[in-house]
Amino acid sequence: MCDAGRGVGPTGLGVYLDFAESIQRLGKNAVAERYGNLFEMYERITGENPYEVPMRIYPAIHYTMGGLWVDYQLQSTIPGLFVLGEANFSDHGANRLGASALMQGLADGYFVIPYTLGNYLASTKLEKVSADHPEAKAAKADVNERVKKLLSIKGKRTVDSFHRELGKIIWDYCGMARNEKGLKEAIAKVRALKKEFWENVNVLGSDGELNQSLEKAGRVADFIELGELMCIDALDRKESCGGHFREEYQTPEGEAQRDDENYAYAAAWEYAGEGKEPILNKEKLTFEYVHPSQRSYK
Ligand SMILES: Cc1cc2nc3c(=O)[nH]c(=O)nc-3n(C[C@H](O)[C@H](O)[C@H](O)COP(=O)(O)OP(=O)(O)OC[C@H]3O[C@@H](n4cnc5c(N)ncnc54)[C@H](O)[C@@H]3O)c2cc1C
Fold first, then answer.
1. Dihedral of CA 203/205/206/209: which sign?
2. Per-residue model confidence as pLDDT tens digits over 62-73
3. How many angstroms is it from 56 CA to the middle of ligand 1?
4. What is the rounded distance in angstroms from the CA atom of residue 177 to the CA atom of residue 169?
5. 212-236 vs 134-153: helix crossing angle, rounded to 10
6. Is the Cβ atom of 85 under 6 angstroms away from ligand 1?
7. 274 class by beta-carbon count within 10 Å (0-12 exposed, 13-18 middle, 19+ buried)
8. Coil, strand, or helix at residue 48?
9. Atom of ligand 1 at shortest range from CA of 104
10. CB of 214 sitting under 6 A from ligand 1
């Protein structure tokens, strides 16, 4: 499709995309038909014309496929908890197409939840839950204990430094290309980071006021769990498919090598408790009318 030079951006991860050869081979109109809107956006942002000079492209994560398991009503495994938008796993499978994330959010919000949540409320006998309910008390005690623990650690490292380190591990080992060795290393690194977080994080302030450091610490603790699970899932799926590219599973042309015979399922990982391996539930995917086919980016 085009020549790619290396070396753009702070870590040299970016590329130059030069369309000169494609324009020569296919003609400017054909390229404009495929990428005209992107070229226009790029020129508006950079002031450079991609028909004339190579584009400077740098990869950045901006969407995560997968999410909480939901049924067709958008209800999770917890009755009454409905999950919309990017947080649920439902619409995109292994790779989401351009502009379809917002479409999914709109569809979930406009066309699904008004009916399914309404149906749930109308058809479910909901018990009045007071703050004295044993479950409410237990949940409150859990949160208070977690908050107290975060504030009591008074370690040497900031919340941000853990967030950044986690991001780097996931980007380096579970980013655009993954392999078995790297994913095993990443799982070990994330588990070590988790241990250090709960021993050495320094959360400023107290729980008696609006505390963004405390709020962020709570999120980073969640991200660490999610990061570990993303690596476990990527290690378990021994094929390349969509946004999941395993270096060991590629065609001689360098395209993603899928294994539909063994991996045509949605992997729903179940929390098994602190320090225990999550349990894999396989939701088999069946394609009656449109059958998956190997995609080529050539
Ligand atoms: C750079 C970029 C470019 C994109 N371009 C496109 C595009 O061109 N087309 C397209 O379709 N999609 C695009 N996307 C994806 C799209 O923007 C998202 O998928 C979409 O916004 C998700 O909407 P959402 O409401 O599901 O979640 P979000 O927009 O992520 O909203 C979730 C909200 O929940 C809040 N929150 C999280 N945790 C907690 C908590 N514990 N307590 C309280 N609040 C919490 C967050 O602060 C956030 O406000 C892009 C995304 C990015 C980052």
1. negative
2. 888 999 999 999
3. 25
4. 13
5. 100
6. yes
7. exposed
8. coil
9. 11
10. no
pLDDT tens track for 240-254:
998 999 999 999 888
Copy the structure tokens of residue 143: 């949160």
Residue 243's nearest CA partner among 175, 170, 167 is 175
Q: Which two tokens stand for residue 256?
A: 């993603």
86 lines ligand 1 (CB under 6 A): yes
Residue type, 223: F
Does the beta carbon of 99 sit less than 6 angstroms from any atom of ligand 1?
yes
Which residues make Cβ contacts (< 8 Å) with residue 92, sequence separation at least 6?
65, 100, 101, 104
User: Under 8 Å CB-to-CB from 106, ≥6 apart: which residues?
Assistant: none
Q: Evaluate whether 95 touches 243 at the Cβ level (below 8 Å).
A: yes
Q: Read off the tokens for 217.
A: 């610490």
Q: How many whole angstroms separate alpha carbon 219 and alpha carbon 294?
A: 38
Give per-residue pLDDT as tens, 95-149. Answer: 887 778 999 999 999 999 999 999 999 999 998 889 999 999 999 999 999 999 9
Cβ of 38 less than 6 Å from ligand 1: no
The whole-angstrom separation of Cα 85 and Cα 68 is 10
Nearest CA to ligand 1 atom 51: 62
- 95/239 Cα distance (integer angstroms): 14
Is the CB–ligand 1 distance for residue 97 below 6 Å? no
Q: Establish whether residue 62 lines the binding site of ligand 1, counting it when its CB lies within 6 angstroms of any ligand atom.
A: yes
Query: What whole-number distance in Å separates Cα of residue 219 and Cα of residue 241?
Result: 29
pTM above 0.90, yes or no: no
Distance CA 78, CA 80 (A): 6
Report which of residues 294 and 289 the model is more confident about: 289
Alpha-carbon separation of residue 203 from 103, 173, 193, 198, 278 (angstroms): 38, 28, 16, 11, 29
